[in-house]
Structures are given as structure tokens and as C-alpha cells.
Design goal:
alpha+beta, 1 helix, 4 strands, 34% strand
Length: 73
Amino acid sequence: MFMPEPNANIWLYTQPTDMRKSYCGLLGLIKQQIKESPLIGYFVFINRRKTQMKILYFDASGYCIWCKRLSRG
């Protein structure tokens, strides 16, 4: 189960995101659109149909992407 730290910053990118993007593409969105450092929180991206979600974050060993296919509701 994915459990972010209790005091972590969480940003939701509200524009639909191409779920084919990986580390470099999502990092580009964070730097250019959200204008935050990708090292200091959790960044949530959702596709146009709201059926998939990706979370990008940095931990002690490097960047991590957590992906989830959402069911209805």
C-alpha cells in the first residue's frame, strides 16, 4: 500500500496528463507548469478519463513513480 509521510506536501496537477510519460516527462511538468522543486513532495497526475493516476516522488535512493489504474467511483 502507498502511504505518504503524514507531513508531506502533495500537489495535484489538474490538467489531463499523458500516462505514457515517465520520469523525464513528469519532471518537466513539475518544473515548467507547477514551478516547484521535484525533490520536496508528492506530485499527482491523472489522465483525461480519470481512469489512471501516477504519483512521482523522491526518496533517499532516487525518483519513484507509483501507478494506479482506477476503477469506477
